[in-house]
TrEMBL record:
Family: Belongs to the CbbQ/NirQ/NorQ/GpvN family.
Database matches in InterPro entries: ATPase_dyneun-rel_AAA (IPR011704), CbbQ/NirQ/NorQ/GpvN (IPR050764), CbbQ_C (IPR013615), P-loop_NTPase (IPR027417)
Signal sequence, start to end: none
Keyword check for ATP-binding: yes
Span of domain ATPase dynein-related AAA: 36-170
The CbbQ/NirQ/NorQ C-terminal domain, residue ranges: 183-267
Annotated organism of origin: Bradyrhizobium oligotrophicum S58
Protein name: Putative nitric-oxide reductase subunit D
A GO term for molecular function: ATP binding
Organism placement in taxonomy: Bacteria, Pseudomonadati, Pseudomonadota, Alphaproteobacteria, Hyphomicrobiales
Keywords: ATP-binding, Nucleotide-binding
TM ranges: none
Domain of life of the organism encoding this protein: Bacteria
Length: 269
């Protein structure tokens, strides 16, 4: 069994995040009123950064779990482990977040096994309880506990979709890419490349994003733009950086790649 990848961060500085709409206020209200939050949007559009930013802003520890298709309820809640001849109960990341307070962030929650919903349901309605069958405990989530989940609707297959009874336990916020001027500012700030040099990269990203659903499964993410600008800031020639960070990660199809290179040549030169 693959272990649950998780990390606990207590940010000392505020991770920078540029809002697209009212998401910061919504998130804060949700936290104050003990409502769980679901974030949806394409890869690399800022969901994880947003959660890190809000956790730091609200002064909450952040327990992040990257969900995968082997992730079970026990990976989240905990299990008895053998330690020096004894079996000792060891809390999983969800249980730890419920005991200690803070945000538990389940990234790509649709990937997790179906039994995960069994532990999420009582925790995400007004009971806010986490029953631990194995230890016989029933934990009541403190006010400082918040559950946040995210997924990318673009990758959803029917058998992986969240059930309505799960979805309807969350406030949901949709994420998209930032408007051009703001995306230029973010990519420049993250990479150190000047806004004037970032501008054509963002223009190219817009052209590629328009191909989504036709030749491309998903368009260029803000993350890839940051990678591309970082390579250029480090001295990589623009055409090489664009190929490595904005074309190769998008497709393996030789014809599609050739088409993207043509577009890149027309936009960037
Ligand atoms: N609104 C934003 N403000 C600041 N930085 C942003 C924003 N959106 C994207 N970024 C940049 O893009 C990078 C990728 O964002 P992030 O990792 O949050 O994406 P994600 O939506 O969680 O993607 P995935 O679904 O693949 O996990 C960030 O590390 C950051 O550099
Ligand atoms: Mg993420």
């Amino acid at each position: 069994m693959k272990p649950a990848l998780h990390a606990i961060d207590t940010a000392l500085s505020l991770p920078s995040y540029t809002p697209t709409s009212n998401e910061c206020a919504l998130f804060e209200h949700a936290f104050r009123h003990r409502l769980p939050v679901l974030l949806k949007g394409p890869t690399g559009c800022g969901k994880t950064r947003f959660v890190a930013h809000m956790a730091a802003r609200l002064g909450l520890p952040l327990h992040t779990v990257a969900c995968h298709d082997d992730l079970t309820a026990a990976d989240l809640t905990g299990r008895y482990l053998l330690k020096g001849g004894d079996t000792v109960w060891t809390d999983g990341p969800l249980t730890r977040a419920v005991r200690e307070g803070g945000i538990c962030y389940l990234d790509e929650v649709v990937e997790a096994r179906k039994d995960v919903t069994v532990v999420l349901h009582p925790l995400t309605d007004d009971r806010r309880i986490l029953p631990l069958e194995r230890t016989g405990e029933e934990l009541i989530a403190p006010d400082g506990f918040m559950l946040v989940v995210s997924y990318n609707p673009g990758y959803q297959s029917l058998h992986k979709a969240l059930k309505p009874s799960t979805r309807q336990r969350f406030i949901a916020i949709e994420f998209g890419f930032l408007p051009a001027e703001q995306e230029i500012a973010v990519v420049a700030a993250e990479s150190g490349l000047s806004p004037e040099r970032v501008r054509p990269l963002v223009a190219l990203a817009h052209r590629f994003r328009a191909l989504q659903g036709h030749d491309l499964e998903e368009g260029v993410s803000t993350r890839l733009l940051v990678y591309c600008a970082t390579l250029i800031a480090a001295g990589t020639p623009v055409a090489d950086a664009v190929l490595a960070a904005m074309i190769e990660p998008l497709t393996d199809d030789a014809d599609v790649k050739a088409g993207l290179r043509e577009v890149a040549h027309a936009v960037i030169g």
